[in-house]
Amino acid sequence: MAAESKTKYDRQLRIWGDQGQTALEKASICLLNCGPTGSEALKNLVLGGVGSITVVDGTKVEKHDLGNNFLVDEASLGQSKAKCVCAFLQELNDAVKAKFVEESPEALIERNPSFFSPFTLVIATQLLEISLLKLDKICRQSNVMLLVARSYGLTGLVRICLKEHDVVESKPEHFVDDLRLHNPWPELKEFAKTMDLNVTDPVVHKHIPYIVILIHIAEKWADGHGGCLPTTRQEKKEFKDLIKGYMINTDEENYKEAIESSYKVSLPHGISSQLRQIINDNNAVEVNSASSDFWILVAALKEFIENEGAGEPPLEGSIPDMTSLTEYYISLQRIYQAKFESDCLAIEHRVRTILKRIGRDPDSISRAFIKNFCKNTRKLTMEYSNTILDIYIQENEGVRIEDNVVEASDDACNEVIYAAASVVRCIRSLNFCLVSILSPPNGYSLQVCRYRPLEDELIYPAISELQKYMTDEDFSFSVSFYILLRAVDRFTANYNRFPGLFDKNANTLLKLYSEMEEDISRLKTIAVGVLSDSGLHGSTLAEDLINEMCRFGGAEIHPVAAFIGGVASQEAIKLITKQFVPLNGTLVFNGIDQKSQVLAV
Amino acid sequence: MANSFSEPARWRDLDKLLARCGNIVGPGFEPSPQLRQEIGEFARVLVVGAGGLGCELLKDLALSGFPNIDVIDMDTIEISNLNRQFLFRLQDVGKSKAEVAAKRVMERVSGVNITPHFCRIEEKEIDFYNDFNIIVLGLDSIEARSYINSVACSFLEYDSDDNPIPETIKPMVDGGTEGFKGHARVILPGMTPCFECNIWLFPPQVKFPLCTLAETPRTPAHCIEYAHLIKWDEVHSGKTFDPDDPEHMQWVYTEAVKRAELFGIAGVTYSLTQGVVKNIIPAIASTNAIISASCALEALKIVSGCSKTLSNYMTYNGVEGTHIKVTEFVREKDCLVCGPGTRIDLDTSTTVSQFIEILGEHPKLLLSKASITHRGNNIYMQSPPILEEMTRSNLQQPLYDLMGKVPKDTVHVSGMAENNGKKSSSLRKLCVLFKGIAAADVATQMDTAGNV
Fold first, then answer.
1. Which residue, among B237, B191, B135, has the nearest Cα to B339 in the 3D structure?
2. CB pair distance less than 8 Å for A558 and B311
């Protein structure tokens, strides 16, 4: 990377590193509709240095755009909005390739689905459900990530629509270091043995690293407890007291650290249930020439855990800072690093063998990529997002979800989906939603079905979850807004305008008042319909919120749009860099008291 | 100019909120087609900081219908700002952030009037801050937040029952970000906790023990801090280290590399050296956009009443999934900054210079080099020299006389306060009582205090 770019991107390179930056620079992003929500989302990504952008919008700049969109100005009036927004974005960062298409996104979705396939990510803003349904299908078919963003008065939402997303570097903030104190390997044990906790030199005594202290004392404990390590609260307390007994002075930081970290000797052996889910995924069990690099690595990881690893994943190889003499600390670092290297080598060997077996070039996955994967295996997570199409499956006849999910043409499909949705709920607590139904009811061909879910459940009732939201004070605004946003789309489909948005003839207050009353009652009726379609018969929404939705009249308020666009761009970065964990559900923005919520059931 | 700004067609969307009535609104909301124009005429907003948050805030506020904005920032533009501070271009490097940011927003949003102030926040007279209806903070330092907070709280007056007087409340909205995380909060001094009430939300920075740096370094950061904090002074006796001087930074880096080699420690890079020495906080455009948008929206709601407001602290965390949480913190009853004032009992004969000594020794204040004002009058000023000279003769006079012989009143003092061994400029509000003059008054006060 050029020195100037290094300096320019310094503050973000400290977060996602060169690897993340390279991924961004390779990404091509398509924005649908460049009102303030879309323009702001793209602005943040252009600043960060994404590879290329394409702005799609069929409208001309009007007066009202000057009141909420910073990316157009007075000179833009009457011109193509896409062109003006694109020109300003280009000014922000000349390293980005910026293009625009002067066409309505709805028309493009309808007429030219293949338009979307070259992109890494599509950000769809201010689109109605009916278009989103089609777009979601198009993006899934061509493996393009889709982010949906919507601003509406003081509310709005952001959701991710993906087939599957794998996070290689989740970079969790609170994650226990991989020290293997519960299961030290021979070299580490040997090193610990070279040190004596009863050493008489006080300087050495207070500089024995806590890793060594804990290995010594854990061994002593195990000797006196039939080979077991402390598990109960009482035992853990006794273990701490045992450590305390070795202190010769109360200010020995290394012993204090040992006491604080003593729980690390009691960590369970083996891998987490989440990692187990991943390595047992069919994609890992049955790798073939069509498998992605990620799944080949998972397959190699699975083999490693079952063989060399003896049930454990590869060691992460780094240790936190701790009180120690320099030489002890450096020696420890080397021991951990060496074990990491040898684990990596074993996995690399397995990757190469698998590649050969499936007929691919054994060197087609780089060593650096394998190493990065190994470093992060303990933190692997997977997110399965729901397809928008699934949500509305009931509303369409003869539904066919592409790519190994459902083919159905009558009522029975509801049962299939219902069955799938209930399984999803069962295992969602593992943050991993993969449903395999081998013998679907009524013989419909359903192999693997991936979901993640609030919306499914709005229609295929997980009524209990929804009712919980409806009655939980913290969630009530958000879930109401969520339902009302859907109601607004139905209203708009019926009347060809947003509720509360009147033509200019309604200029007398009296007329405005009566039209408003009428819209409020229409929207209420539609919202009741959405509720009952979601299985929430008899639930009601607060009148005040229905009024608010009509008051908003489809307004795009700049700070709300900047918030929604900001969230969309942050999620885009997580998806593109495959670092950090993306939004898990639908974020509903609540601009009234800022108690926004992610609805994920 | 004002006409083009207030044109109704332009504000079609915003007017939905401002001209239409609603049931979930703030106290005193009076929707009307003229409300936006009224806000334009009376509302003055101050944005403190023209960096990552500041640039966004200026744009957001201009497009929220505020035509009169001031912005204050002492910094100049650097290349590393360009990944998020979208009002700046490569050719702006070295220029004032406040000036360039104001100019860019005015160019794009016609009719908006932004006045830049290219200076330190402490350089402005306290009264400068009183001219604004609301202060929006886009800062990255605790000290600067603390200072602005103390200024805004100094305008707050209490009635005789110790209830805040509404007209004296100076609302603040504060934002902050770090990587994928951030916060936005609303501070209504006297009503909601002020910055100082919840100062514990900002944990103190971790410092390495000097003996680790000198004797048992283990990490690259230890080597860097050794070069920066120990070796620099050994070699450059008397010369202050300047983190913005590339030669100084290069020297620290080279020394850190040498030390790391000596101990067999890997991982010292130039980038890490800068990060450790300057305590660089990672920053990205999207998080700044999210947090600024929240702050601007709150400012719009506070000024117009068009909806409820955040009560009172929102955190955003996008590291593992996306989590937004609102917490309602409570005021610190005895807050030195937003409370009715630290009580100080004096004799009517206490002179100003004795009073200054008392301030330095007062355990709750520890305020040195104090300047003193009473109801806008300068009693004694440490600087500038001309004011010092003008007020010097007051030093030997009794404070009681200079305050117009009132038995009890509020006095503002500013100076250097000591906090955790670190000195920083601060402004404190005092409730001065003169002994023996208001015996009855004092007795009542004591009773109330006892009941709290």
1. B191
2. no
Q: Prior bond to A254 cis, omega within 30?
A: no
A48 with B285: Cβ contact below 8 A: yes
Is residue B32 less than 8 Å (CB to CB) from chain A?
A: no
Using a CB–CB cutoff of 8 Å, tell me whether B293 touches chain A.
Answer: yes
Residue type, B376: G
The answer to which of A78-92, A109-123, A536-550 has the lowest mean pLDDT is A536-550
Secondary structure (3-state) at A352: helix
Mutation target among A66, A92, A157, A252 for the B interface, most CBs of B within 10 A: A66
CB-CB contact of B64 with A560 (8 Å): no
Q: pLDDT, tens digit, for every residue of A208-258? A: 999 999 999 999 999 999 988 998 889 999 999 999 999 998 889 999 999
Burial (CB count <10 Å: 0-12, 13-18, 19+), residue A181 = buried
pLDDT at site A416: 41
**B57 neighbors B45 (Cβ within 8 angstroms):** no
Count Cα atoms within 13 angstroms, Cβ side, for A436.
6
Model ipTM value: 0.85
3-state secondary structure of A553: coil
Nearest to A231 by CA among A241, A222, A244: A222
- The answer to whether residues A293 and A365 touch, using CB atoms and an 8 Å cutoff, is yes
Q: How far is residue B437's CA from residue B440's CA, in Å, rounded to a whole number?
A: 9
Looking at per-residue confidence, does A441 or A248 come out higher? A248
CB-CB contact of A76 with A53 (8 Å)? no
According to the model, what pLDDT value does residue A402 have? 37
Enumerate residues 218 to 237 of chain B having a beta carbon within 8 A of any beta carbon in chain A.
218-219
Question: pLDDT-based confidence at A174, cuts 50/70/90?
Answer: low
pLDDT digits (tens, 9 = 90+) for A323-378: 999 999 999 999 999 999 999 999 999 999 999 999 999 999 999 889 888 888 87
Those of residues 145-174 in B touching chain A at CB distance below 8 A are none
Q: What angle do CA B14, B20, B21 make, to 5 degrees?
A: 135
Report helix angle A186-193 to A210-224, nearest 10. Answer: 100
Question: Cα–Cα distance between A519 and A525 in angstroms, integer?
Answer: 10
Paired residues of A443 in beta bridges: none
Q: What is the pLDDT of residue B84?
A: 95
DSSP A123-180: EEES--HHHHHHHHHHHHHTT-EEEEEEEETTEEEEEEE-S-EEESB---SS------
- C-alpha triplet A214, A219, A221: angle, nearest 5°: 95
Catalytic residue set of B:
211
**Residue ranges in chain B modelled with pLDDT below 70:** 1-4, 420, 438-452
Please tell me the predicted confidence (pLDDT) of residue A463. 65
CA dist A248 and A404 (Å) reads: 66
Amino acid B307 reads S
In terms of pTM, does the model score above 0.90? no
Token pair for residue B90?
């490569």
Distance between CA atoms of residues A390 and A231, nearest Å: 46
**DSSP state string for A72-105:** --GGGTTSBHHHHHHHHHHHH-TTSEEEEE-S-H
CB atoms closer than 10 angstroms to residue A122: 25
- Dihedral angle sign, alpha carbons of residues A335, A337, A339, A342: negative
Q: What pLDDT sits at residue A437?
A: 26
**Amino acid making up residue A287:** V
Least CB–CB distance from A64: residue in B10, B285, B324: B10
Indicate the angle between helix axes A210-224 and A326-357, nearest 10 degrees.
Answer: 80
Quickly count: other Cβ atoms within 10 Å of residue A464's Cβ.
11
Q: How far apart are CA B173 and CA A433, in angstroms?
A: 41
Place of tokens 């130039």: B270
* Whole-angstrom distance, CA of residue B327 vs CA of residue B99: 36
Helix (H) or strand (E) holding A157: strand A155-161
